[in-house]
Amino acid sequence: MSEAAMEPGQGGNAPLPASYDMSEVGDWIALLKPRVMSLVVFSGLAGMLVAPGATAMHPVLAATAILCIAVAAGAAGAINMWYDRDIDAVMRRTAKRPIPAGRIAPRAALAFGIWLSVASVTMMWMATNVAAAFVLALSIAFYVFVYTMWLKRRTPQNIVIGGAAGAFPPVIGWAAVTGDVTMVPIILFAIVFVWTPPHFWSLALWAHDDYARAGVPMLPVTAGARETRRQIVIYTAVLAPLGLVPWLVGFSGPAYAVVAAVLGGLFLRHAIAVLRDRQDETGRSLTNDAPARACFRYSLYYLFILFAALVADHLVLGA
């Protein structure tokens, strides 16, 4: 792939193989980062279901709002892949993505992302209200311009500040029902915001070489593995009690509180295992980062189960 085509932000077209076929649906779906999208959609749905008046919302409008959240997340992912195609090409974890692999032209991916962004925000506005559409547009802009283009290549705090982009969905879901943003969706935003660093740094510990090769200043690359392990424990120690805040402010009942306390305790146990992992003199793991991999997997379960418990507390137990 030519150097001009790989330069971030230039939008050049990479030379495509003769077998390139625009009908390859799988590659276009891959641009949307469907695995990331699943968590975004679920947290947005949770925000919607616990909002006052959720059961009175027309099912078609509710489904449209969730679709808009999913499409917007995918659109931001596509633009992210367009911009990051140069570093994706040198990282083993991302080298087979459609753009660096030459299966989709960069300009086509950018146009795809922009079109989906505009369509999702417009449809959200038409189906629900201006507040939900505004927060949805803000989430796309934050992920693309603040995280992808500004922070990711400049500071090890990229995932701390940029993590706000992934914390918007429960706020969007809530606003789609109520037309406003109050204390509860802000609490849900805070939970996802604080959850993001230990979740992502657990991944970054065992993807260290990839980030170093690409020159991305993730915390393990700039501060070392030992400091990253310490930060994972610190953020998890903040997250564990933060998960109890919906109960402390009277928004949820004791059943949710029990689940949140257990989940937080288990997450902290995983974080401490990452800190205590056997390391060499540089702080690199001697166990192939097994505790970090386990912590990363658990972090996904944590958020799914926590939000599911909050929804069940409202819909089943009537908190």
Automatic annotation (TrEMBL):
Subcellular location: Cell membrane
EC code: 2.5.1.141
Pathway assignment: Porphyrin-containing compound metabolism; heme O biosynthesis; heme O from protoheme: step 1/1
Superkingdom of source: Bacteria
Primary location group: membrane
Ribosomal protein among keywords: no
Keywords: Cell membrane, Heme biosynthesis, Membrane, Transferase, Transmembrane, Transmembrane helix
Catalytic activity: heme b + (2E,6E)-farnesyl diphosphate + H2O = Fe(II)-heme o + diphosphate
Topological relation to the membrane, as annotated: Multi-pass membrane protein
Transmembrane spans: 36-54, 60-83, 104-125, 131-151, 158-177, 183-206, 232-249, 255-275, 296-317
PROSITE patterns: UBIA
Job description of the protein: Converts heme B (protoheme IX) to heme O by substitution of the vinyl group on carbon 2 of heme B porphyrin ring with a hydroxyethyl farnesyl side group.
Alphabetized PANTHER family for the sequence: 4-HYDROXYBENZOATE SOLANESYLTRANSFERASE, PROTOHEME IX FARNESYLTRANSFERASE, MITOCHONDRIAL
Family membership noted in the UniProt record: Belongs to the UbiA prenyltransferase family. Protoheme IX farnesyltransferase subfamily.
Note: Carbon 2 of the heme B porphyrin ring is defined according to the Fischer nomenclature.
Protein name: Protoheme IX farnesyltransferase
Source organism: Neoroseomonas terrae
